[in-house]
Design brief:
The complex is a heterodimer of chains A (112) and B (113). By secondary structure, chain A is mainly beta. Chain A is built from no helices and 11 strands. In chain A, strands 2, 4, 5, 9, 10 and 11 form a 6-stranded mixed β-sheet that branches. In chain A, strands 1-3-8-7-6 form a 5-stranded antiparallel β-sheet, with no helix packed on it. In chain A, strand 7 and strand 8 form a beta hairpin. Chain A is globular and about 45 Å long. The N and C termini of chain A lie far apart (38 Å). Chain B has no helices and 11 strands. With 113 residues, chain B is an all-beta fold. The chains are: A mainly beta (112), B mainly beta (113). Chains A and B meet through strand 5 and strand 9 of A and strand 5, strand 9 and strand 10 of B.
């Protein structure tokens, strides 16, 4: 049973475009939603995170939008650059549990 | 840099041999995790630890065991390596209490021939 579904599996955009990666969850007990960025040959690194009492969070060119009623959240990358080419993972966690659940990842390619 | 190191970084081993991977942290975090990453499967949790000698299974624990005798070290053992365990293995620590994120090590690429 996959508790966090991520789409699309891969995404190609032109430089300056706005790629959008979507995640949907099932368990309403999840109360924290981080996103991770992974470059080839490296471990995933925390990018940005949101709690469900907030509908949007921005950090630089990265924005998370959160729709609690739909149990969906998404990552938008403004003015995307070739250096943003990486694999992105969404995750969900519960504050009273020890482990997180990850989506399967989205491989983003930004063409120059 | 979350102060996480993994060793070895690369290993090739033969089917049927035992293998131990080591994760070392320098920041005294309570929670530590082992994941494997395979194409098309994202990150899958193998085992995690919530303190010295306190561990629990993840979603893909069969064929793996773990030990944590010190706060700073979390060991993953493949009891009898199989080709299906060829993968990249990541260790992670958890920062934060109620709301937390995980910080990952650089990974170990394991090939079982």
């Amino acid at each position: 049973q996959q508790q966090v579904k991520q789409s699309p599996q891969s995404l190609i955009v032109q430089k300056g475009g706005i790629p959008i990666i979507n995640c949907a969850y099932e368990n309403t007990a999840f109360d924290y939603f981080p996103w991770y960025q992974q470059f080839p040959g490296k471990g995933p690194a925390l990018l940005i995170a949101i709690r469900p009492d907030v509908s949007e969070k921005k950090e630089g060119r990265f924005t998370i939008s959160f729709n609690k009623s739909a149990k969906q959240f998404s990552l938008h990358i403004m003015d995307s650059q070739p250096g943003d080419s990486a694999t992105y993972f969404c995750a969900a966690s519960m504050s009273n549990a020890g482990k997180s659940t990850f989506g399967d990842g989205t491989t983003l390619t930004v063409k120059p | 840099d979350a102060g996480i190191t993994q060793s070895p970084r690369h290993k090739v081993t033969e089917t049927g041999t035992p293998v131990t991977l080591r994760c070392h942290q320098t920041e005294n975090h309570r929670y530590m995790y082992w994941y494997r990453q395979d194409p098309g499967h994202g990150l899958r949790l193998i085992h995690y630890s919530y303190g010295v000698k306190d561990t629990d299974k993840g979603e893909v624990s069969d064929g793996y065991s773990v030990s944590r005798s010190k706060t700073e070290d979390f060991l993953l053992t493949l009891e009898s390596a199989t080709s299906s365990q060829t993968s990249v293995y990541f260790c992670a620590i958890r920062r934060g209490a109620t709301y937390y994120e995980q910080y990952f090590g650089p990974g170990t690429r394991l090939t079982v021939t």
